[in-house]
From TrEMBL:
Domain of life of the source: Eukaryota
Signal sequence segment: none
Protein name in the entry: Uncharacterized protein
Native organism: Daphnia pulex
Gene Ontology BP term (one): transcription elongation-coupled chromatin remodeling
Amino acid sequence: SCKFLKQQPVRELEDDQFLRLVVAEQAGVLTIVIQMKIEGATNDSYLDGIKSLFTYNLFNQRDELVKNWDAERTKVIDLAFTKFLLPQLEKELRVKLLNEAREFVVR
């Protein structure tokens, strides 16, 4: 049984635990929030790595136009991740976790 969950990595969910959480959420007892970023974690290396693929570094001889375009590219990448990619990944993760929990119950 679960009494309290906060900032638990999904990899630590066991057996039918997620299914029980979803049932409780549907009953209005709790709300499941899947965070892609945990408070206190400062490792943005994945997103920074992607941003670096779309920005230019011309041996520190960057003119204002290049800097402005890099800023726009960075905004677009941030928008794509926060508004489109991460919400879709959350939906897919919920489906995967629910299916795994259901399979456990069926076995």
